[in-house]
Write a structure and sequence with these properties.
mainly alpha
Length: 88
């Protein structure tokens, strides 16, 4: 039986590379201070949300935390990177 790995499913569902999907799952995990959710749990949560586009890793972690799926403390939200062109 050939099972599809969570990063493979994210890769195909959101049309990103497998490496980017692995990185994304790792960043969701690193958004939590202590206990880290499994890749499988993260993928199941994303599937249950019915997302049409991929949110940031921290946004996924925050949603998991708020909904009680993974009720462990989060790190502080990373700063938003702004290009010089975006500054008026």
């Amino acid at each position: 039986m050939n099972t599809i790995k969570p990063f493979e499913k994210i890769s195909s569902q959101f049309q990103i590379s497998r490496e980017s999907a692995k990185y994304f799952l790792g960043r969701v995990q690193k958004s939590f201070k202590t206990e880290k959710p499994t890749h499988k749990l993260i993928m199941e949560f994303i599937d249950a949300q019915g997302l049409e586009f991929l949110l940031t890793p921290y946004e996924i972690a925050a949603l998991m935390n708020e909904s009680g799926v993974w009720a462990y403390p989060l790190i502080t939200e990373p700063p938003i990177i702004v290009d010089d062109e975006d500054i008026p």
